[in-house]
Amino acid sequence: MGSLEAIPGSVCAPAGFRAGTSAAGLKESGDPDIALIVSDRPATAAGVFTTNRVVAAPVVLAKERAARGQARGIVVNAGNANACTGNQGLADAHRMAAVAAEALGVGPEEVLVASTGVIGHRLPMERVEAGIREAAGRLEADGAAAARAILTTDTRPKEIAVAVTVGGQRIRVGGIAKGSGMIGPRMATLLAFVTTDAAIWPEVLQASLRSAVERTFNCLTVDGDMSTNDCLLVLANGAAGVNAAPGSPVHTAFCEALLHVCTHLTRELARDGEGATKRMQVEVTGARSALQARQVAMTIANSPLVKTAIFGNDPNWGRILAAAGRAGVPLDPVRLQLTLGGIPLVRGGEPLPYDAGEARKALAAEEVCVVLDLGQGRFAATVWSCDFSYDYVRINAEYHT
Amino acid sequence: MGSLEAIPGSVCAPAGFRAGTSAAGLKESGDPDIALIVSDRPATAAGVFTTNRVVAAPVVLAKERAARGQARGIVVNAGNANACTGNQGLADAHRMAAVAAEALGVGPEEVLVASTGVIGHRLPMERVEAGIREAAGRLEADGAAAARAILTTDTRPKEIAVAVTVGGQRIRVGGIAKGSGMIGPRMATLLAFVTTDAAIWPEVLQASLRSAVERTFNCLTVDGDMSTNDCLLVLANGAAGVNAAPGSPVHTAFCEALLHVCTHLTRELARDGEGATKRMQVEVTGARSALQARQVAMTIANSPLVKTAIFGNDPNWGRILAAAGRAGVPLDPVRLQLTLGGIPLVRGGEPLPYDAGEARKALAAEEVCVVLDLGQGRFAATVWSCDFSYDYVRINAEYHT
């Protein structure tokens, strides 16, 4: 394995990437809402996308283009999801790419598109086009502005970069993400963009990405509501002059760095879930398969009763066991062991005595770990979520379409 | 078909049924918490139960006994679920039945048991036993007190009775139910008890019950959290002297009456969901199968984003389409048609203009109907739920285990 180290920055930390932003007036705040992430040279591209059957126009286009395995840049807007906008929406997504490509002097098929925001409204294309051109004129080797421009209801930007050195060769991986509800109050959704200066074949990049996503973004839930716009795109431009050939130590190091970046962004998304007062990490161990472990963990992490109990600092182990019991996984209640915030609460399916004051204190932490052992195998899974507070209801009930 | 008419009362409206209650101190309020429902003669029994893998002791016992197809009575306690209580809990459930049987002068295997309330605490058996004996001494032909005794966090009792006359023969079906969260703040859960004075074979009763439940209780969701104690029991004692032989007009009329009773109780449960300010009815039409229709309807009815929008009187059609899209059912966005509170909002997957004031008014009603046509077949399903308010969070976060 390589030695992994945190480095400053995000998507522009890898060599040969620049980013630019502008404000096209898509956000009521007037904040920047257009971002361009551009590689100085042709890059390998890969992506994973929402599996929602109601899918936004930019996702349709980005999926098609990412499948080509090669791209030069990504154009993103926040404040409007360009979803449920019919053929006109698809034409608008194409136009966003074409305008960005023209401004960057690359082929239109080399630009990927992502949108996030309210569903069912056409993009104001005149302002969007002007915004894209403006952003293209402001490219610099700094991803911080892009990390902010893609936000909607998020309360903070999410960014990270790491470098990994293996056999004297150094590559960098950086990423940014946004998302607060799976579908937020303004239909904000999860977007993530990752860059690397390693050289890597498209198929290998795609496989490496899928593997990392299975253990990170696919283990995240805020409210169980899947968006129409979810999209994670990766660009690998090879500017470091290091080839991550499959099976090589560089590839292993790259995967490790990619996993690190995805884990960080996933945890940051959980922490910033709509109305969240704390992050919840659910670990299920002792399962017969990794799939079963994740299924149980996800059911616990999505339970409104568990999430409200965590919000209320209540060690309500009964709700956790009841959620596990309905996960669709065969389990034997008398084998269950539960620890909440480090405090053992259940052994052999029956409650253990605990100190109520100590439990409340443990649950008032910034992150609460739920650890449930099923006692039937050697597989495990970890998922991330957050608590369920009055503010989730406020954010989502006070919004008006 | 028979002519169906509403009659006063509930589980004691059918001939030959009596009920009694007492207060054993299981509820903090000191309200009655023990109920007995008794048939004067041997009755056919049937039941449906939670499919949660973490299942309460009384469910284990009631399931076993209902499978015998014959019973004389049901003993119920509210305030303590007798769940996650191990072998002692099972012994306590047996003891409840034995004490009731002794007081009633019937065999212990002829008494079914149900419990609802907090998980993980042993029943105070001395008080429970005294309460059961007291209730057995107070049997009368009135189900109203039983309807109240079984409640936990419910805000109102749920009861109904109907009579149906077919070919000059008259039978009655009555029922009561409780439940506010699938698992409520005190681990309250859904219980329902139905009686009839029709005579009906156990297998036919069980099949008729399953059919009714598929279209009623199994189409209900408050928060998607399945309880450890859910249980619906039916007793048919034949006191009307009318045989509901399979395929007979009486059987058809009985099934109609049973469906009516189950539908009423289901709708009442939805209306009294935890924190509910209104009932939500979700109808999905134009599906390729009834299963697919229900799957889409359930996903919409369980979506926190849809439920908070309904609470906020917001015609947020985008959230409804996004929920439908993640239901795991193949669907074509351009065929979707959506009507909310009687107002057409989407046709061909794209938004229609609507009057915002009119929409808010329609959504402020006591019941809001979501009607989504998938445009791909002739199957439909209806499910019932409620909105998601601050009070759901309050009720479930302020509880302390």
Name some characteristics of this structure.
homodimer, 401 residues, alpha+beta, 9-stranded mixed sheet, 6-stranded mixed sheet, globular
What does the model show?
Two copies of one chain form a homodimer. Residues 183-188 of chain A have low confidence and may be disordered. In chain A, helix 5 links the parallel strand 8 (189-196) and strand 9 (231-236). Chain A contains eleven helices and 15 strands. In chain A, 64% of the residues are buried. Chain A is of the alpha+beta class. In chain A, the strands form two sheets. In chain A, strands 1, 2, 3, 4, 5, 6, 7, 8 and 9 form a nine-stranded mixed sheet that branches. The longest helix of chain A is centred in the middle third of the chain and has 23 residues, at 249-271. At the A-B interface, helix 8, helix 9, strand 13 and helix 11 of A face helix 8, helix 9, strand 13 and helix 11 of B.
Give the radius of gyration of chain A. 22 Å
Order of helices and strands of chain A: EEEHEHEHHEEEHEHEHHHEEEHEEH
Oligomer: homodimer
Low-pLDDT stretches of chain A are 183-188
Mean pLDDT of chain A: 90
Largest sheet of chain A: 9 strands, mixed
Number of DSSP strands of chain A?
A: 15
How many alpha or pi helices of chain A?
11
Secondary-structure map:
Two copies of one chain form a homodimer.
Chain A: E1 3-6, E2 17-22, E3 34-49, H1 57-66, E4 70-80, H2 86-104, E5 111-118, H3 125-136, H4 144-149, E6 158-166, E7 169-183, E8 189-196, H5 202-214, E9 231-236, H6 249-271, E10 279-287, H7 290-302, H8 304-311, H9 317-325, E11 337-340, E12 343-347, E13 350-351, H10 356-363, E14 367-373, E15 379-386, H11 390-397
Parallel strand pairs in A: 4-5, 8-9, 10-14
Antiparallel strand pairs in A: 1-6, 2-3, 3-4, 3-9, 6-7, 7-8, 10-15, 11-12, 11-14, 12-13
Helix pairs in contact in A: 1-2, 2-3, 5-6, 7-9
